[in-house]
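Fill-in record for HIT family protein.
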Amino acid sequence: MSSVFSAIINGDLPGRFVYQDDTVVAFLTIAPVAPGHVLIVPRAEVDHWESVDPQLWQHINDVAQKIGTAIKKAFDAPRVGLLIAGLEVPHLHVHVFPAHSLETFDLSKAEQNPSPESLDDAQKRILAALR
């Protein structure tokens, strides 16, 4: 069975992408802990991060670092959080988000209904910072 992330990657569900290559994608989550919260997701359906091919894992982290640098700039964040939870969707993904405090790392406090305008704005800001 295909994951919801595969449906986004394949264009079957909408996604606000900020990065794509042949191996991974990065798009805004629909439940952000802070504006600019992005998920780095491999195109391959790998469930557990500890079982991923080391070369793919390195690439995911390289992309996360690149996106994190853009997020820090775009949102004037003192830190950028990186989190692997793996319980929400059975498809490896790394959360990258502006972090202003440890509370930002609590996914249970994520905004459940962000406005489309706020997500569009976050996407534009990250894309601009990546240029």
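KEY FINDING: The CA atoms of residues 7 and 13 lie 6 Å apart.
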